[in-house]
């Protein structure tokens, strides 16, 4: 539901029948709305500010009037969702192509045999009519040949693996259950297992090349934690043991006791006791620091039960800061449009709010001006370190340096080595830890000065033209000569294991793109924190142009640095593109000369996604190791995914948790929903769902890889098995007058795919693992073959075909040589058709069974049971089908009476069988042996290494510490948007009921 | 003693199908109403054919007699055993005459002989244990060959004692009563004498194949061993680190 909220509902009330709303037709623009409400002859303009999007929650509001504008699929959110398409894997498509190939192959075989039959009937059959007359409707050999074409079509149709589709579905279902059952992907706190919501995409999980990830809720928990602070040059927040060694904070670490403070938030935890001691000691600077935190913000508080404060903050960062101040004894209690009530160490004080100089992206700071109960006018300011530093009073220079050192340890070492020795510990760098920092400063204002300024300010506020610019100019006048108090560091808490997961995925050559609606600073900060961007990267390009030309320039120059030759005319991709092929084409992978990152803005992206820029964007972006797109609308996320999907022959995966990720989840080959706090939308539209980002590693590297390997093995084996089975008929045709005589007993034909060979291949494709999960995770390199689709492609299929032709050749001619003119030891001949069938079918079964035994790398009881059991079962069925009783009951159905008894005891059969098996296996074993030597794939080395490690177990790997950054970057990443400073000072929302204020939260 | 036919497609699909195993098994209803598979040798002059079908119809009916031309003026007939040439299962289980105590001719009443045959099925052999459907020549013929060139066991020449050779060296004389036409389809007839060992008759295929495959495997093994030694070192795995 989307409705315009009318902030002053009084006059309207509920008689709306006479009103009329005219608005734009449903569209997907989230930030635009235009409409006019006509009511009682008056026109009210409805704009974007008056629109609530579907899914929004109104806080702190008891009631409001609304009008539904769009419903159901017309809502802006649904318009942004993108189309649901039926997702199929690459292997599915390939399979369809191959089945088509097989049909052609079948047709050509039938054609050859039909022609052969025509010739045979002409040359021989015609004269053989004495013993075998033609059917009355056959007038000539041509007619016979035409009929024979269809006879062979029926006999040879087993090359078309109809049961393949069924088996594939079973395998996928099985592998989906593995995902559902995986205990290591079960999230105990929420009692939620991983969930494969579709069963058709499993093997594609083993081929992912691009991961598109949301940030908030996916990489991060969207929980802000007040981690550290630096007050007046002293660093608080680290915990040290008695020897002065820094201790990693863990669950066992003792928390600071806030019991002295009745208003403390029990969920807040802090570990450094020195800060509390400083507060209790009454350190003026520390008090001022927390006071400023409790004053300088736009948070609303709610106190439904006395003493239980609930803060409603527009950004979680602010909430964390105010909560921290509250716990340390400076609790922000309530506010009206003119006052802020703060409980200072148990003592309630009311500050008069004079002005809020609100936050915006250019200023990167906010200030409040208050009149204290002692009648001093104070300005409190917090903002980005880079900005605030320039505004400091010269007397704070040295303090500024120290604080900056806290923000950045490395520089501290360079500047003053003595400083390092003076402290017993090493500074922890806020920026490097991925903490979001803000500097806090204050200024005491002269009353007269403030009055003068206030006048200017209200003038600026009232001016009609260029208001924002004027306000910002006025603000700058007062925000200077600030006295530095310190800096805060807030941790945007990453989800568990994000860092390791991304490192592993990087090693597996999976490219990580972060698509977020957040601001650039926040996104980049998180990217560094979770290693998407590394400090070793050669360069990070930022595209933020506002028109085609600039963006084009930026993209080109980025590409010139990464791979200069890619701009030349002679570059294969360029020359290919200039040919302007009409067919959909794929851009090959291009390798840059280093590690690069790219940051692109939603605004620029809108241009870049249009027209001829999209190829530039794609080529540049795909050369980078990591890409961050910020300020994205949901639809843009989908567009980016579509772009990669369209021009790259790769598998894409999108992972997200919110409703704004739905379109991207739907667009990508594989969509993963994280069932987090942001509702079920993403999960319901996803193909796989789980609770933690780091399960992705397991999903891809273990389940995906296994599924892919199994599917590939299954397909090659399945095709092979059917080729061998069927092609024997082809060879036999040359000896049976092309008469469509089958080699095998009809029952064998019926049971072959259904009974004799179905279980082993299912066992293989459900249980096989070339290396176990530990190794899969330890050597992410093993993942690469899937990305290039090395294990099953058209080439592999042709290999199966050739292998099948060879095996069927052996399987026909070895038994033929064996039975030809040979007799038993009692003189009775064994060259009859039924004995021959039995020999061929038994050999065939042994060969395919040995083949599968050769392909099985992971032997379990089940695979032993399936493989050898199937073979044993074959002999049981054989004796049953050829038994006297059954054959006598239905002599015309079971014609092979006694054949098993008579033939299976022959040494010839077993000798011929062994020969067939050896001949069929030799080339395979030889090829498997030679392949890693002559045509090595990178994986072979890894597997070699693994085998080596298995034989000589190594000590567990020493965890190398994640290298820390070396470059200076600002850790400023306040997630605040332009806030409600204006709203608060206008006091509109607090009329009458100061406690209840309505906040529109998206 | 075998007879051999070549270019004779006993494995042609229509030929292989053209029989009624129920009838051959002595089923009385199938005797009078043979399966459709037997067409066009199902009925003749409104009477069901027994045994029906193209296979039975084309039964080999030459007679072969072997004489030893010794020093005596008239040759001695080598005794040929005509029983024991079919599989036991075929003779005793699969093929059965129609039930009943009467003479065979009575039991086959209401049927007619196959078109090409001279005598009806109940006159194949005077020995009642080798007559009708259980005639062993017939059974051997009905076990169709897998390949167009085949041999079928015709008679057994039994060794009388270990001291005397079964067929002593000397001149032999083969008397063929020529009934069976093969010229029309360019066929060939053969008569084969073969001595049986514990492994059956002479067929060098398996032996040769085993020797060939064995030597190939050995060679391959040596080659692979050499290659392994040469390449394993060069493609060592040192560049992969954990």
From TrEMBL, chain B:
The keyword Transcription does not apply. InterPro entries: CDC50/LEM3_fam. The chain crosses the membrane at residues 205-227. GO terms for biological process: phospholipid translocation. Residues 19-43 are annotated as: Disordered. It is found in: Apical cell membrane; Cytoplasmic vesicle, Secretory vesicle membrane; Golgi apparatus; Membrane. Keywords: Cell membrane, Cytoplasmic vesicle, Disulfide bond, Glycoprotein, Golgi apparatus, Lipid transport, Membrane, Transmembrane, Transmembrane helix, Transport. Its main location: membrane. Residues 23-32 have a biased composition (Polar residues). It is a multi-pass membrane protein. GO terms for cellular component: apical plasma membrane; endoplasmic reticulum; Golgi apparatus; transport vesicle membrane. Belongs to the CDC50/LEM3 family. This is Cell cycle control protein. It comes from Equus asinus (Donkey). The lineage of its organism: Eukaryota, Metazoa, Chordata, Craniata, Vertebrata.
């Amino acid at each position: 539901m989307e409705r315009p909220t009318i902030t002053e509902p009084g006059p309207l009330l509920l008689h709306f029948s006479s009103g009329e709303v005219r608005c734009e037709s449903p569209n997907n623009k989230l930030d635009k709305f235009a409409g006019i409400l006509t009511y009682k002859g008056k026109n009210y303009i409805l704009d974007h500010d008056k629109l609530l999007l579907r899914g929004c929650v109104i806080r702190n509001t008891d009631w409001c009037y609304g009008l539904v504008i769009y419903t159901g699929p017309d809502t802006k959110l649904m318009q942004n969702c993108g189309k649901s398409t039926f997702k199929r894997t690459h292997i599915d498509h390939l399979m369809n192509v191959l089945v088509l190939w097989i049909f052609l192959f079948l047709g050509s075989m039938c054609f050859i045999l039909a022609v052969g039959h025509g010739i045979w009937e002409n040359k021989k059959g015609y004269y053989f009519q004495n013993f075998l007359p033609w059917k009355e409707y056959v007038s000539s050999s041509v007619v016979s040949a035409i009929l024979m074409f269809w006879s062979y079509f029926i006999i040879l149709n087993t090359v078309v693996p109809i049961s393949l589709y069924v088996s594939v579905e079973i395998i996928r279902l099985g592998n989906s259950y593995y995902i559902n059952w995986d205990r290591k992907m079960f999230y105990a706190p929420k009692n939620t297992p991983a969930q494969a919501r579709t069963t058709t995409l499993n093997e594609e999980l083993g081929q992912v090349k691009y991961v598109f990830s949301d940030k908030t809720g996916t990489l991060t928990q969207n929980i802000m934690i007040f981690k550290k602070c630096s007050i007046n040059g002293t660093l608080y927040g680290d915990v040290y043991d008695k020897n002065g060694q820094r201790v990693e904070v863990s669950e066992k670490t003792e928390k600071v006791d806030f019991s002295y403070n009745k208003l403390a938030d029990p969920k807040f935890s802090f570990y450094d006791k020195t800060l509390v001691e400083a507060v209790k000691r009454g350190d003026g600077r520390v008090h001022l620091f927390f006071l400023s935190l409790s004053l300088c913000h736009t948070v609303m508080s709610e106190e439904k039960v006395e003493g239980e404060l609930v803060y409603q903050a527009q950004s979680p960062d602010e909430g964390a800061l105010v909560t921290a101040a509250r716990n340390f004894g400076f609790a922000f209690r309530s506010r009206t449009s003119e006052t802020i009530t703060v409980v200072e160490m148990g003592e309630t004080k009311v500050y008069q709010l004079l002005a809020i100089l609100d936050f915006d992206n250019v200023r990167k700071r906010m200030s409040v001006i208050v009149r204290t109960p002692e009648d001093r006018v104070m300005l409190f300011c917090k903002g980005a370190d880079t900005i605030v530093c320039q505004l400091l009073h010269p007397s704070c220079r040295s303090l500024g340096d120290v604080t900056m050192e806290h923000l950045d340890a490395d520089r501290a070492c360079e500047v003053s080595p003595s400083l390092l020795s003076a402290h017993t510990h090493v500074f922890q760098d806020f920026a490097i830890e991925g903490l979001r920092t803000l500097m806090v400063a204050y200024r005491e204002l002269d009353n007269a000065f403030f009055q003068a300024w206030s006048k200017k300010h209200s003038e600026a506020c009232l001016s009609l033209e260029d208001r924002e610019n004027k306000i910002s100019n006025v603000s700058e006048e007062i925000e200077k000569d600030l006295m530095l108090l310190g800096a805060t560091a807030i941790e945007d808490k990453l989800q568990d294991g994000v860092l390791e997961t991304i490192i592993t995925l990087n090693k597996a050559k999976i490219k990580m793109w972060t698509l977020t609606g957040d601001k650039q600073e926040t996104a980049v900060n998180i990217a560094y924190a979770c290693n998407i961007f590394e400090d070793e990267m050669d360069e990070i390009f930022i595209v933020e142009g506002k028109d085609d030309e600039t963006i084009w320039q930026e993209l080109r120059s980025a590409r010139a640095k990464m791979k200069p030759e890619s701009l030349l005319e002679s570059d294969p991709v360029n020359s290919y593109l200039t040919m302007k092929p009409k067919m959909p084409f794929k851009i090959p992978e291009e390798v840059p000369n280093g590690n690069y990152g790219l940051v692109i803005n939603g605004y620029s992206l809108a241009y870049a996604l249009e027209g001829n820029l999209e190829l530039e964007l794609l080529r540049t972006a795909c050369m980078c190791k990591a890409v961050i797109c910020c300020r994205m609308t949901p639809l843009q996320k989908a567009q980016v995914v579509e772009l990669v999907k369209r021009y790259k022959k790769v598998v894409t995966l999108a992972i997200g948790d919110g409703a704004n990720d739905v379109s991207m989840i739907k667009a990508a080959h594989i969509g993963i929903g994280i069932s987090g706090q942001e509702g079920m939308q993403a999960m319901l539209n996803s193909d796989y769902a789980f609770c933690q980002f780091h399960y992705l590693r397991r999903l891809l590297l273990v389940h995906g890889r296994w599924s892919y390997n199994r599917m590939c093995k299954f397909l090659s084996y399945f095709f092979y098995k059917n080729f061998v089975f069927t092609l024997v008929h082809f060879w036999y045709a040359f000896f049976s007058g092309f008469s469509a005589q089958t080699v095998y007993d009809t029952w064998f034909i019926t049971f072959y795919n259904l009974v004799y060979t179905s279980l082993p291949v299912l066992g293989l494709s459900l249980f096989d693992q070339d290396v176990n999960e530990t190794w899969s995770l330890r050597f992410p390199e093993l993942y690469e073959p899937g990305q290039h689709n090395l294990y099953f492609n058209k080439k592999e299929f042709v290999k199966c075909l050739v292998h099948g032709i060879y095996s069927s050749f052996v399987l026909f001619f070895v038994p033929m040589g064996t039975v030809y003119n040979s007799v038993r030891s009692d003189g009775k001949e064994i060259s009859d058709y039924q004995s021959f069938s039995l020999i061929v079918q038994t050999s065939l079964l042994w060969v395919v069974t040995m083949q599968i035994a050769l392909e099985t790398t992971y032997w379990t009881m089940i695979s032993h049971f399936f493989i050898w059991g199937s073979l044993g079962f074959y002999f049981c069925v054989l004796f049953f089908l050829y038994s006297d009783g059954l054959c006598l009951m239905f002599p015309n159905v079971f014609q092979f009476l006694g054949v098993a008894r008579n033939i299976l005891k022959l040494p010839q059969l077993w000798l011929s069988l062994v020969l067939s098996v050896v001949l069929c296996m030799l080339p395979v074993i030889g090829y498997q042996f030679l392949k890693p030597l002559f045509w090595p794939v990178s994986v072979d080395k890894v597997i070699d290494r693994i085998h080596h490690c298995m034989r000589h177990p190594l000590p567990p790997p020493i965890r190398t510490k994640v290298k820390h950054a070396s470059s200076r970057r600002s850790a400023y990443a306040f997630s605040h948007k332009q806030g409600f400073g204006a709203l608060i000072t206008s006091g509109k929302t607090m009329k009458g009921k100061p406690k209840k204020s309505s906040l529109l939260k998206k | 003693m075998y007879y051999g036919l070549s270019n004779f497609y006993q494995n042609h699909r229509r030929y292989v199908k053209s029989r009624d195993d129920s009838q051959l098994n002595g089923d009385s209803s199938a005797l009078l109403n043979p399966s459709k598979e037997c067409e066009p040798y199902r009925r003749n002059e409104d009477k069901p054919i027994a045994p029906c079908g193209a296979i039975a119809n084309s039964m080999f009916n030459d007679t072969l007699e072997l004489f030893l031309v010794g020093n005596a003026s008239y040759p001695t007939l080598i005794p040929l055993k005509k029983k024991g040439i079919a599989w036991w299962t075929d003779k005793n289980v699969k093929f059965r005459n129609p039930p009943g105590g009467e003479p065979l001719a009575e039991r086959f009443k209401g049927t007619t002989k196959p078109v090409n045959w001279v005598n009806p099925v109940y006159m194949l052999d005077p020995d009642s244990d080798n007559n009708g459907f259980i005639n062993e020549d017939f059974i051997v013929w009905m076990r169709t060959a897998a390949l167009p060139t085949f041999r079928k066991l015709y008679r057994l020449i039994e060794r009388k004692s270990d001291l005397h050779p079964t067929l002593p060296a000397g001149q032999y004389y083969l008397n063929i009563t020529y009934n069976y036409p093969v010229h029309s389809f360019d066929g060939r007839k053969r008569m084969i004498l073969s001595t049986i060992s514990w492994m059956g008759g002479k067929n060098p295929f398996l032996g040769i194949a085993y020797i060939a495959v064995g030597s190939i495997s050995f060679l391959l093994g040596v080659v692979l061993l050499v290659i392994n030694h040469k390449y394993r070192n060069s493609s060592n795995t040192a560049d992969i680190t954990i």
